[in-house]
């Protein structure tokens, strides 16, 4: 006798999923049942045993998913409160010294140790970047995401945003870092309207304020004016006035919440402030508009009593062909042209220096000598790769050069070092988040120690002094004071004859530098 089964015969029938997301349809289940009823007893028992074992292995309840894009609409109740610790296997990271083999310990960063009269933590003022650490997926222009942290549920709901925020503060506490940085849209989901987006942000910021307590605060906040399609032509430089106004409203809100959280700085990252071709661009008008935008930001900052430093982050390219804040020198020129030099400083990112054809040391020195060095995004790029790879800084030599500039600057406060760096696409373990930050902090701490050795030794400084000692003369003083005209210089040139040019001793300075490593 043949028996036919239908969905009505199965109580609470569902469409199950395998762990790989392969759907086991009801039709396939019915087919199996029908086949089973027509088998001989021995074959039937064998088939039933195999089917039972396979069912136990592959059939599971369908996972809850929803869009995580701008139009995602998820029931926040699905993102239930996370139970227990986010990082239960990770202890509080401690200093164990250079001989330690423990990957979850500091070897060079000893927060309270004094170097050149200042504690290491005060030289560094480390900060964790929320967007890379908690929103980074491992995706790149050529591949999909590779990371899905255990606490993620696939949604972009407010409940999920709150869960990430709790993970952030547990991460900071275990790492021993008391500062963090954020974009508005990375910590809170974008709404269908500006009012809804602001409400979402308010709700998340209220939680962040509670979790911060009195010990933690943002190093800086910023507005994300580059992801949404409305910003395809830029924000402050968009040719559409509606976009300009929307960008201003978003920055206004981002400054407010940064101020509310006790942020010490506010950053303007150019995003798409630039052009793809001059054939359809009025560059002069766009630069004027950007200056007016910055002037309005200064006025609003003062109106609400925000005393933090406003920072511009130079970037040469990506995503536009030409960014208006190409490098430190370009940004300094812009600020001088529009009378904003006293209102802003620069947030120098080492990877951006690579893209602009400079070294990080060059960009830091350019900012420093112009009185504009305010903050450092601690990352690095690969000179063999043509985009912003945002790698953790692991090169001790580069870190030493960075710290030489920081020491000359007298430190970075109220700025600091923000780890605007992300795990490699292939690094997918939760502990990798800690290892990357530990290694980055240790590298910069080692750079500080090396820079201090070079300064205390004095050999490098003395060699540089001797190289310019001819300007320590009476004529040199006149030149540097702007009191030596061409007639006087011509008279001296004729009196002295053809000059003897000394060696630059480049190999010697490099030997001295490397000896401190």
Question: What's a quick, concise take on this entry?
Answer:
With 517 residues, this protein is α/β, with parallel strands linked by helices. It has three domains: 7-58, no CATH class; 76-102 and 114-139 and 147-457, TIM Barrel (Alpha-Beta Barrel); 459-515, no CATH class.
Overview of the molecule:
The chain is α/β, with parallel strands linked by helices and 517 residues long. The chain has 3 domains: 7-58, no CATH class; 76-102 and 114-139 and 147-457, Alpha-Beta Barrel (TIM Barrel); 459-515, no CATH class. Helix content is 44%, strand content 10%. The protein is built from 18 helices and 14 strands. The protein has helices at 26-37, 41-58, 120-124, 130-135, 158-175, 184-187, 194-212, 241-260, 283-303, 328-337, 350-355, 360-369, 396-408, 430-457, 459-467, 474-480, 486-496, 506-515, and strands at residues 94-95, 105-106, 114-115, 118-119, 126-129, 179-183, 217-222, 265-269, 274-275, 309-313, 322-323, 344-349, 373-377, 417-419. The strands form 4 sheets. An 8-stranded parallel beta sheet has the order 7-6-5-14-13-12-10-8. A two-stranded parallel sheet has the order 1-2. A hairpin with a 2-residue loop joins strand 3 and strand 4 (118-119). Helix 5 runs parallel beside helix 7, helix 8 (241-260) runs parallel beside helix 9 and helix 13 crosses helix 14 (430-457). The chain is globular. It starts with 25 loop residues before the first helix and ends with a helix.
């Amino acid at each position: 006798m043949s028996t036919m089964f239908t969905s009505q015969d199965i109580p609470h029938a569902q469409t199950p999923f395998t762990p790989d997301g392969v759907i086991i349809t009801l039709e396939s289940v019915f087919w199996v049942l029908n086949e089973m009823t027509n088998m001989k007893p021995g074959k039937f028992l064998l088939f039933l045993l195999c089917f039972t074992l396979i069912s136990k292995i592959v059939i599971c309840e369908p996972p809850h998913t929803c869009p995580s894009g701008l139009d995602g609409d998820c029931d926040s109740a699905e993102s239930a409160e996370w139970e227990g610790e986010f990082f239960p296997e990770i202890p509080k990271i401690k200093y164990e010294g250079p001989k330690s083999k423990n990957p979850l310990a500091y070897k060079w960063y000893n927060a309270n140790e004094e170097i050149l009269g200042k504690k290491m933590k005060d030289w560094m003022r480390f900060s964790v970047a929320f967007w890379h650490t908690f929103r980074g997926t491992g995706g790149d222009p050529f591949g999909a995401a590779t990371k899905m942290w255990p606490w993620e549920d696939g949604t972009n709901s407010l409940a999920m945003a709150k869960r990430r925020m709790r993970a952030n503060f547990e991460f900071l506490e275990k790492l021993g870092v008391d500062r963090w940085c954020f974009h508005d849209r990375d910590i809170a989901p974008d709404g269908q309207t500006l009012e809804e987006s602001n409400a979402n942000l308010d709700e998340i910021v209220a939680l962040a304020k509670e979790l911060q307590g009195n010990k933690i605060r943002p190093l800086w906040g910023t507005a994300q004016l580059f992801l949404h399609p409305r910003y395809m032509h830029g924000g402050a430089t968009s040719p559409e006035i509606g976009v300009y106004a929307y960008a201003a409203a978003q920055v206004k809100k981002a400054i407010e919440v940064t101020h509310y959280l006790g942020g010490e700085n506010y950053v303007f990252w150019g995003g798409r402030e630039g052009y793809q071709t001059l054939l359809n661009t009025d560059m002069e008008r766009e630069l004027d508009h950007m200056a007016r935008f910055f002037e309005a930001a200064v006025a609003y900052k003062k109106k609400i009593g925000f005393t933090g430093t406003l920072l511009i982050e130079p970037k040469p390219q990506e995503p536009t062909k030409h960014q208006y804040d190409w490098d430190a020198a370009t940004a300094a020129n812009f600020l001088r042209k529009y009378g904003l030099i006293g209102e802003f400083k620069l947030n120098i990112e080492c990877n951006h220096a690579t893209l602009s054809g400079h070294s990080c040391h060059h960009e830091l020195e350019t900012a420093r000598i112009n009185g504009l060095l305010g903050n450092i995004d601690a990352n690095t790029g690969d000179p063999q790769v043509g985009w912003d790879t945002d790698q953790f800084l692991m090169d001790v030599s580069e870190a030493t050069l960075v710290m030489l500039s920081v020491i000359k600057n007298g430190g970075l406060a109220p700025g600091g070092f923000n780890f605007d760096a992300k795990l490699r696409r292939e690094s997918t373990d939760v502990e990798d988040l800690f290892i990357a930050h530990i290694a980055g902090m240790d590298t910069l701490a080692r750079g500080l120690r090396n820079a201090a050795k070079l300064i205390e030794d004095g050999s490098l400084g003395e060699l540089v002094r001797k190289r310019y000692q001819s300007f320590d003369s009476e004529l040199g003083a006149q030149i540097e004071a702007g009191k030596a005209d061409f007639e006087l210089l011509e008279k001296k040139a004729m009196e002295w004859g053809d000059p003897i040019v000394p060696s630059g001793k480049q190999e010697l300075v490099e030997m001295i530098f490397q000896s401190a490593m």
